[in-house]
Amino acid sequence: MSKPMPEKPTVDGLEDVWGPVWEQDGTYRFDRSAAGDRAAVYSIDTPPPTASGSLHIGHVFSYTHTDLKARYERMRGKHVFYPMGWDDNGLPTERRVQNYYGVRCDPQLPYDPAFVPPFEGGDTKSSKAADQLPISRRNFIELCERLTVQDEQQFEHLFRTLGLSVDWTQSYRTIDDTSRASAQRAFLRNLERGEAYQADAPTLWDVTFRTAVAQAELEDKEMPGAYHGLAFHRTDGWDDVVIQTTRPELLPACVALVAHPDDERFQDLFGTTVRSPLFDVEVPVLAHHLAQQDKGAGIAMVCTFGDTTDVVWWRELQLPNRAIIGFDGRVRSDEPTWIASEQGKALYAEMAGKTVFSAKKVVVDALTESGELIGDVKTINHPVKFFEKGDKPLEIVSTRQWYIVNGARDEELKTTLRKRGEEIAFHPDFMRVRYDNWVGGLSGDWLISRQRFFGVPLPVWYPLDADGNPVYDQPIVPTEDQLPVDPASEPAPGYEESQRGVAGGFQGELDVMDTWATSSLTPQLAGKWESDPALYDLVFPYDVRPQAQDIIRTWLFTTVLRSQLEADVVPWKHASISGFIVDPDRKKMSKSKGNVVTPLSILEQHGADAVRYWAASSKLGTDAAFDPQNPKQIKVGRRLAIKVLNAAKFVYGFPLPEGAHAVTEALDTDMLAELGSVIEQATAAFDGFDHARALEVTERFFWTFCDDYLELVKERAYGTATDATHETQASAVLALRAAIDALLRLLAPFLPFATEEVWAWTHETSVHRAQWPTASGLAAAAGPGAADRLGAGPSGLLAAVGQALIGIRGAKTAAKASQKTPVTRAVVAAPAETRALIERAAVDLAAVGRIADLSFTDGAELAVVDIELAEQPA
């Protein structure tokens, strides 16, 4: 034995016992030299959690699902490549740093090498920027680096406590030098192939974070609003044209009125012009199929820009850009050149500098006074677009941004991406429709530039002309061997730092990449793309991408896109999609809702195996409810882990009789045959990414094994049963040991700590490096001739005898007698076929029931029809 069998086995503290052993022994280390070729490897594109605070119970849920599959494939003989990354750049990290240290970034400030933050350990709740100390970009990034490292250490501790079989030598960070170089290399290749480009265009903009937002990061929220009727004046003298709008403050930005081409109400208006109320600006009336005849007045005011439909109209109808909203969400102060009337100029001056809400009041008051507000104001609730991490409605501003093509404007690429989706096996398959719908509904290329600080810099500079203006269409780029670079702090190739910002010199790009532009390269980052080609060839394309369902449109899609653009292949064969964790009210748990549960205390209270059991009980793609006040499933899992320890100790307590060499008895053979069927079912379930089914069939048999089989054969295994022989005793002990050996391996992915503890009592190596059980291996363990006896499959003997045992126990309970009470005589009735089965195990049934005279008779159903208990001593 590598570990003595304890007097009283316990699940408590097993994480502290076995975690260090696994690390020291390299139990889960990926051995690339032993792997040989790609066919021997099972590679996992593990989700890198965002290092911005704490993990929640949902992480435990989904990461356990991945670990179950990893452990199964390892036991099947695969060399499992199971890395862990940390997604430590992006807005969540910046916001956490701002609140944690009480600071905000001001790129204009100089670096302070002796800087000390005003405080440390904020409550991570949103705080006002005015209360935060402005610091330099470099100081801010240093704080980001410091805090993410702390978070990552806590995350790793939690994942180790959970028992994830990750190879911790294969970890990476999305902001380290290697990752930055990889992300910049991929971008430069996109640029070289014409897949990356920059453009001045309307951009969804978050006024709080002061950054552009991509289509995939949008979230609709129901918000109160109001329809206002505005009277536009026809230039031909006819009656006014009344439109309905929820954004009257954008009236100065109006560029057209639009109605559906089939709407008979406006046929005479198409091709004419009208003048806007208050500002008296002449705008055309045009036809477009996106106008909704049944919405509002049926004719819409097109402004630059009120919503994404305005952008479509602006682009397709070739309208002017009269944007009035600035990056801060306020009305711009510069006077619009298209407003000629003095009244209009004065009103705009009153709006300038105000928020959109204050500007709306100015306009509505003016419309009311002028009589151009028609009818009653109608209040409504309507969906408004937000940045998924923001708390203010998005605006649309005109900015210069970087994009990567994604098929939105390229039907050939879109068709290819759809086909790539068909090559991926989704688990469950119904999740595939989310990918298909996203690809089909793309409305613009992927905006990847962000006006933030802690991210991978876009590796470009721009030459400045003789007047000091940047020449954007002639970007300067580094060579790949110079990566990573930071154009904000390093001079452009061929220039000196003294030429920064000087006419004839250069200007560095200040924007960083969207965090998904780095995360979309996790297969490349983990596999050390370009820096370790031999490793990359061993793991890519990966076998599986596990992830959450809500980021199919972002992480899954963008990874497929980058792999297509770079290598013309899918990045993995399978995508396993976990469901959400919901609270007792069936609401999704999220930090923003404040209903998340931090898992470390749950793990410490109940044990990792118990928590893993709860997670494993749910199929992929299905949501699971979690009540921290009454975690029933976790309690069931702890009971199962304890039972594994106790049942195994009981089995190993039977010494193997000398000369024991084969399982011969019918009950033993039937139990092993049934276990062989369980092994085949569990194997098929794991192969089909159905870990919950594998657990279900294994657990059900395990309890039958403990409650029925162990009880039935224990007297024979002790050698005390009536008519027991050396051979029948040996048969019981061999069957018990063969079964517990197989069951430990079946349960190992689910209960890694309890099964490792038990395995160590009789083995020198880890159960997690043991071979996954097979029906043929079980037959071999049962000794000579057992394969033939097990080959016929289970006969139902164990189930029938188990039912008879329940009847005998029930009779004793009804008589208010102890189960240890001897039985003078018992008669069991059963249908002929069932009776024939039970009679084959009569000796074991009589022994466990303490029955002196056991007989059988025919009956319509299995039942104890007569029982006589021995007299109990006073």
TrEMBL record:
EC number: 6.1.1.9
Residues that coordinate or bind ATP: 591
InterPro entries: aa-tRNA-synth_I_CS (IPR001412), aa-tRNA-synth_Ia (IPR002300), Anticodon_Ia_Val (IPR033705), M/V/L/I-tRNA-synth_anticd-bd (IPR013155), Rossmann-like_a/b/a_fold (IPR014729), tRNAsynth_Ia_anticodon-bd (IPR009080), Val/Leu/Ile-tRNA-synth_edit (IPR009008), Valine-tRNA_ligase_type_2 (IPR022874)
PROSITE patterns: AA_TRNA_LIGASE_I (PS00178)
Boundaries of every Methionyl/Valyl/Leucyl/Isoleucyl-tRNA synthetase anticodon-binding domain copy: 668-778
Keyword annotations from UniProtKB, A to Z: Aminoacyl-tRNA synthetase, ATP-binding, Cytoplasm, Ligase, Nucleotide-binding, Protein biosynthesis
An annotated Gene Ontology molecular function: valine-tRNA ligase activity
Motif interval(s): 'HIGH' region: 49-59
Pfam families in UniProt: Anticodon_1, tRNA-synt_1
Localisation per UniProt entry: Cytoplasm
Aminoacyl-tRNA synthetase class Ia domain residues: 21-103, 131-626
Motif 'KMSKS' region in this chain: 588-592
Main localization of the protein described in the UniProt heading: cytoplasm
Keyword Phosphoprotein in record: no
Substrates-to-products reaction catalysed: tRNA(Val) + L-valine + ATP = L-valyl-tRNA(Val) + AMP + diphosphate
Leading EC class: ligase
Coiled coil: none
PANTHER family (alphabetical): VALINE--TRNA LIGASE, CHLOROPLASTIC_MITOCHONDRIAL 2, VALYL-TRNA SYNTHETASES
Function, as annotated: Catalyzes the attachment of valine to tRNA(Val). As ValRS can inadvertently accommodate and process structurally similar amino acids such as threonine, to avoid such errors, it has a 'posttransfer' editing activity that hydrolyzes mischarged Thr-tRNA(Val) in a tRNA-dependent manner.
Family from the record: Belongs to the class-I aminoacyl-tRNA synthetase family. ValS type 2 subfamily.
Entry note about domains: ValRS has two distinct active sites: one for aminoacylation and one for editing. The misactivated threonine is translocated from the active site to the editing site.
Subunit structure: Monomer.
Designated name of the protein: Valine--tRNA ligase
